[in-house]
Design goal:
CATH superfamily of the largest domain: ATPase, nucleotide binding domain
Radius of gyration: 21 Å
Number of strands: 20
Oligomer: single chain
Number of helices: 15
Distance between the termini: 33 Å
Strand order of the largest sheet: 17-18-16-15-19-20
Number of domains: 2
Low-confidence stretches: none
Largest sheet: 6 strands, mixed
Helix content: 25-40%
């Protein structure tokens, strides 16, 4: 019976799962929409409903998988959102989406109370409502029952717990909370005290790939007994899925938000952290031992979708529009001012009287220029990059992918679901099939791609 590995990626839009074999080849996939309840200020979801969606994706992948024994299961997820538990392990509140605006006032307060630059130096994050500390501050202020909270689990950690694992705090996810002291890899007790929560709220801090128990047969029979692990922050885990694990590597993950992940080692000093964050690039621990990740983002996919909608172009018209954009000279492209760094969307104004392909080329050029600017800032902190690997849904767009040539030689590995594949590989580390992320199998080349 062959060895199989299962990875679950709990994303903002969709929960995905992938089954891979011991060579790293993707053998089956499943997915389920993330069941948010939309609200005026953002979104939230019940912890149990979120787990059920992740479980449904896993079951769908397993249903299509070849015969074999699931040896390891890794779970990766979006960051910042999580589950606050009471002393009996019961959830005290919904999972608040990372992009939810709740916590804006709390972020201003902890920036003042803790010291904004001091917060940056300790956490590698700006004092913003995105980090978990702001969400927790809002909950404690507005929902008194949450003051009984004794454990915070990031989303992937919650799913591992529900599958039968023990409570752990994975370092790359903890790095997004505002509750971790970056230099010492210990809880940032002053931030926890500010929120009125216990010093040990995070639990045992571990590296992605660390075994965290085994799958409960009653919960997921087809993976019963598989080694469980928290596979970390989804962007970093996607990097594992496409082989981005060495210092100097850059992952360009092109989704609704385009994540630019640069791996560095040894850890950055305080001055480098301050410069990085001042330019909009956060610093946190990577899923690989002894490495950190610089993370910049651009709302490129969201902005490009807005342009397509304004042009009235659906999926059926994309190929023709891409062909026209590729045939448009750079000097003929429309000059566009796109909102690329905020979820507070301002009205989109497109020029009139220009062919759609010139507008589309202008949108792609605007995004490409901003991506180059973010990477240039990262290089002022961490030095020249070694390689760039591009993945994600927007990388399948011909014109968008062509714009990546401006970054130099880029790689586009033949991986279907990078995040879920990375999670599965880290499940293999937990199961003992692989020693670490530095000893993973190479990405298999599909047979059709290997023929000339």
């Amino acid at each position: 019976m062959s060895d199989l590995l299962l990875g679950i990626d709990v994303g903002t839009s969709v929960c995905k799962a992938a089954v891979i074999d011991a060579t790293g080849a993707e053998r089956a996939h499943g997915q389920q929409p993330t069941p948010w309840q939309r609200l005026a200020h953002g979104a939230e979801v019940g912890p149990d409903a979120l787990f059920e969606a992740a479980l449904a994706a896993a079951r769908a992948a397993l249903a299509d998988a070849p015969e074999g024994r699931v040896r390891g299961l890794g779970v990766t997820s979006m960051a910042e959102g999580g589950v606050l538990l009471d002393g009996r392990g019961g959830p005290l509140a919904p999972v608040i989406a990372w992009h939810d605006r709740r916590g804006e006032e709390e972020a201003r307060r902890f920036a003042s109370d803790l010291g904004e630059q001091r917060f940056v130096e300790h956490t590698g994050l700006p004092a913003s409502p995105l980090c978990s500390l702001a969400k927790l501050g809002w909950l404690v202020e507005h929902r008194p029952a949450t003051r009984a909270g004794v454990r915070w689990l990031n989303v992937a950690e919650w799913v591992v717990r529900r599958l039968g694992g023990r409570d752990v705090a994975e370092l790359s996810l903890a790095s997004r909370t505002g509750l971790l002291d970056l230099p010492t890899r210990t809880p940032f007790v002053e931030a926890l005290a500010w929120a009125g929560l216990p010093d040990d709220l995070l639990g045992e801090l571990v590296l992605a790939g660390t075994p965290a128990g085994t799958v409960d047969e009653a919960v997921l029979p087809d993976a019963a007994g598989a080694a469980l692990t928290v596979a970390g922050h989804d962007h970093l885990c996607a990097g594992v899925g496409v082989g981005v694990v060495q210092p100097g590597d850059v992952l360009d993950s092109c989704g609704t938000a385009e994540a630019l992940v640069r791996i560095v080692a040894p850890p950055l000093d305080g001055e480098q952290v301050r410069r990085s964050v001042a330019g909009g690039v956060t610093v946190g621990w990577h899923v690989a031992e002894g490495r950190q990740a610089l993370l910049g983002s651009v709302w490129s996919g969201l902005a490009l979708r807005e342009v397509l909608d304004a042009l009235g172009v659906g999926e059926h018209g994309r190929s023709e529009l891409d062909a026209g954009a590729l045939a448009t000279a750079a000097g003929d492209a429309a000059e566009l001012d796109l909102e690329l760094h905020s979820l507070d969307r301002r009205p989109l104004h497109l020029p009139t009287g220009l062919p759609p392909e010139r507008i589309w080329r202008g949108a792609i050029d605007a995004v490409a220029a901003e991506v180059q600017a973010v990477l240039a800032h990262i290089e002022t902190v961490a030095g020249p990059r070694r390689r760039v690997v591009v993945t994600g849904g927007w990388a399948r767009d011909e014109a968008v992918l062509a714009s990546k040539e401006r970054l130099g030689a880029v790689e586009t590995p033949p991986v279907v679901e990078a995040g879920a594949r990375g999670a599965a590989l880290l499940g293999g580390v937990a199961a003992g099939l692989f020693e670490s992320v530095d000893s993973l199998p190479p990405i298999p080349i599909p047979a059709a791609a290997g023929r000339s």
